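[Q] Does anyone have a clean structure-token version of this?
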Amino acid sequence: MNFPTVPTLKFYKLKSDAILPKKAHTGPFEDAAFDLFWTEPFDLILEPGERTLTSTGLACAIPDGYWVKFHERSGLANKNGIEVYAGVIDPGYMGEWKVILHNSGKTTLKLTPGTAIAQFSVEEIIPVEIEEIDSLVFEVEKNKRTRQEKGFGSSTK
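[A] Here you go.
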């Protein structure tokens, strides 16, 4: 029996105290995303409304055909209002992984070294073609769909 090849993310520690990503739960019902950690040798203070670019001390060789997406950690988001901004890493990028954190909460947050600050998932790149069409073809495509131009809350009643 042939099993599919599992892609490997090859991480390089740019700083000796960097922590390799890990999943809190593995095995059956395994977590979908890996945790990323704050590893600078000092506390990170994030005031309400403040945004900062944080270091992970890691660089990675992402296999061709895959990309990485950063996400919030649900506990930090729920308890502290910590959001993660702009987190797409393409397979050609070999620099340090950095995470943009924003404190949308009402209290100051203190993150100590070793705190999980974000998580990431790995996605397969699906090849897609771009084609320009004229207005007649667009109207035909539009009329095939029931939603058409309804958006921004149109599915709520």
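[Q] Thanks! Anything notable?
[A] The mean pLDDT is 91.
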